[in-house]
Write a structure and sequence with these properties.
about 80 residues; mainly alpha; globular; methyltransferase; methyltransferase activity; DUF2624; tRNA methyltransferase; transferase
């Protein structure tokens, strides 16, 4: 299980705006190209653990500042899908 967590966290920490747009389309939520770039820039290289509820909440709060609460809520749903 630890290996899977590491793989998911690695993917989140290395995500590109194009990948984020692809996941948004796949999971039916809207994010603009500009927002995706800002979110990906925030996530990239930070070594974040989305399996930790406290850290995930921090990420969602930052994303809400970047692109609004609706997008942050949808991204949280995406993270929850990844962590199940």
């Amino acid at each position: 299980m630890k290996m899977i967590k590491n793989m998911v966290n690695f993917k989140v920490n290395m995500i590109t705006s194009e990948e984020l747009l692809k996941y948004a389309k796949q999971f039916n939520f809207e994010v603009s190209k500009d927002e995706a770039e800002k979110i990906a820039t925030y996530l990239r290289g930070k070594n974040l653990d989305i399996f930790d509820d406290r850290i995930r909440s921090q990420i969602i709060r930052e994303v809400a500042k970047i692109s609004g609460p609706k997008t942050a809520k949808e991204l949280n749903k995406l993270f929850i899908q990844f962590t199940k």
